[in-house]
Amino acid sequence: QVQLVESGGGLVQAGGSLRLSCAASGRTFSSYTIAWFRQAPGKEREFVGALSRSGVSTYYGDSVKGRFTVSRDNAKNTLYLQMNSLKPEDTAVYSCAARRNGGVYTGPNMYDYWGQGTQVTVSS
Known about the structure:
- The chain is mainly β and 124 residues long.
- The protein has strands at 3-7, 10-13, 18-25, 33-39, 46-51, 58-60, 68-73, 78-83, 92-99, 113-114, 118-123.
- Strands 2, 4, 5, 6, 9, 10 and 11 form a seven-stranded mixed beta sheet that branches.
- Strand 5 (46-51) and strand 6 (58-60) form a beta hairpin.
C-alpha cells in the first residue's frame, strides 16, 4: 500500500498561483498511476489531472487545461500540481489518488488510495 499526504493549499486572489504537493510513503510513485481530484461544496468530485505510471504522459480536465500542470519528483517521491491563473471556480478541496493498475481514468472509483485533501480558496 501507499500513504498520501497533500500540502500547499491556502487562500489566494483570483489570477494568482499555488503549488500543491502530494508526498508518498510505503511505495514509490513509479508503481502507480497518480491523479489529482477536487471537490467543491455541493458538487461531485472532479478529475483535475493525472500522470501516467510511466511518467511519460499527462492528462487534464477541460476546465484546467492550459492553467494547471502535473509533475513529479521521483527522488523525493512527491507529486505536484502547479496551478496558475486561478479562478474563484477553482475553490475546492484537492486530493491526490493512486491507482495500482495501469491506465489513466477520470472516475474516482478507479483509484485505490487517497490522501486527506488540502483546501484551496480563491477570492474574487
